[in-house]
Amino acid sequence: MSEQMTETERTTLSSQEVRRLTESVEGLVFEQGDPGYAEHVDGFDRAVEHRPALVVAVANTDDLVTAVRFARDHGLGVAVQVTGHGAALPADERSLFLDTGAMNKVRVDPEQRTARLEAGVLWQDVIPVAAQHGLAPLNGSAPFVGAVSYTLGGGIGLLSRRYGYASDHVRRIEVVTADGELRVASQEENPDLFWALRGGKGNFGVVTAIEIDLVEVSRIYGGGLFFPAESVRDVLHLYRTWAAGMPEEMSSSFFMLDWPDVAGVPEELRGHFALHLRLCYLGAPEDGRRLIQPLRDVAPPLLDTVTDMPYTDVVSIHNDPPPRGSYHINNFQLTHLDHEAVEAILALVGPGTNPPVSLEIRHLGGALARPPKVPNAVAHVDAQFQVYSAGVLDIGKDQAVYKGHDRVVETLAPWSAGTRLLNFMAGVAHTDPAYVSDAFSPEAYARLVSLKTIWDPGNTFRFNHNIPPMGAESY
Predict the structure, then answer these.
(1) Would you list the domain boundaries of the chain?
(2) Which of 34, 126, 187, 385 is the residue whose CA sits 20 to 30 A from 7?
C-alpha cells in the first residue's frame, strides 16, 4: 500500500488541477456552485448534506480509477453515492464525491446462474433481465435501491429466509482501493479483502462491479393482508405464534399506520388506520394459501392482495414509497416476539397512538442465522425479528421524532438481541463507530479494523458507516 497524504499536506486545488482531472475522465466534473453540482450530491435521505470539493459523475471503471488516484495525490477523502439510501457521514470540503449512477450495465449468464452488476445498477435494472431466464436476484423490498451497496451491506429481502443474505451469494468483486489500484477480490484473489467487503461495504474501496448468484425463482405466492384497527391486536398475537412455525420458504413482515386520504393509496385504506402484513411464499400457490389461511381467518381484512404472481411483481408486496426526504432511522434485532412484546409494540405505534415514528418488524431466522459456505463479515446471528423505525424530519416535529426513537429503544430493550444490520443504519443519527460495530461479531469487527488498517490506513473511505483504521485521526 502507498502511504496516504496527511492532513497537513493537503493543498487547495488549483483550476489547472481541476481542469486536468476534467480532461482525464469521460464523465463530468463539478465544483461547488457549478450547474449540476447540487443535482449529483442530492440523495434519497436529505438529512445528509454533502458539500464535497469536487463531484465526478463517473462514466466507467477507468473514471473511477482516475478519480481515486486524483484523491490520493491531493489528500482528499472519497465519498460514493448511487441513490443516497444508505447515506451516513456527509462528504465535506476535503473530499471527492463519486456519483456512479451512469454505471448501470447488467449482464446475466443463465448457464452459470450469475449476474455481473456495475456500481450504479438498481434492483429494478436486474429483476426483469434475470426473469427472462427464470432466475431472480436476492434483491430487497424496494426496486429503486442500489444493488451493489445493498448486497455488500448484507442484504435482507423476501427470499432471504430461504437463501440467506445477499452478501452470501457474491462470487467476485472488482474494487479500486485507496492506493488507486483496480483489484479483484474473490475466494482465490485477495480473499481477506473479499471477506471484508461482503459486510464491511464501502470501507475498503470503491466497488466498480460485483458478480452475484441468481436463484431459480420465477413465481411466488405473495402480497399483503390489510387489517382494520379493531382487528390489529388479535392479528398480531396470532402472527407471533404463526411466524414461529413457518418454513424457511415463507417470509413476512408487518407495518401499521394511519393511511393518508390521498391519491395512490387504495380506496379501502384511505383515511383509516390499518395493519399491513406482507407475505411471500416460495412454493406452490395451494401450499401458500394453506399456510396463510389462519391469518385470513382471524379477522376480515380490509384488503387482500395475496396471490400467485411472477417474480417481476415482487416489489409490489412492500410497495415502498420512492419520495426523497429527511429521515431519522434506527434498527435493532429481537431475540423473539412474545405476548408482552406485541403489547409493547401496540403501545408504541398501535391504533390511537399517533406516533412520531413508524415501525416495521421483519421475520428473520432460517438461512439468515446460518453461516454461509464462503465466510464473510456479516453477523449471522439467531435473532428472530428485525425492528426498523423511521421518522420524518424537517416538518416541525424533529424533537418528537428523536424522543419517539428513544422510546422505541427503551420499550423494546427487554427483547433486543444487541445486534443491528448495517444496511438499515441510514442517515447521520447512528454513525459512531461503537454503534457501527454492533453490526458485527466482536471477532469480525476486530478483523475488519485490522484489514482497514492494511487497505486504507489513511481512512480515505470514511464518508460512510465508518470502520476506522487503527490509529486513525479524527476527521
Answers:
(1) 7-99, 106-216, 219-428
(2) 34
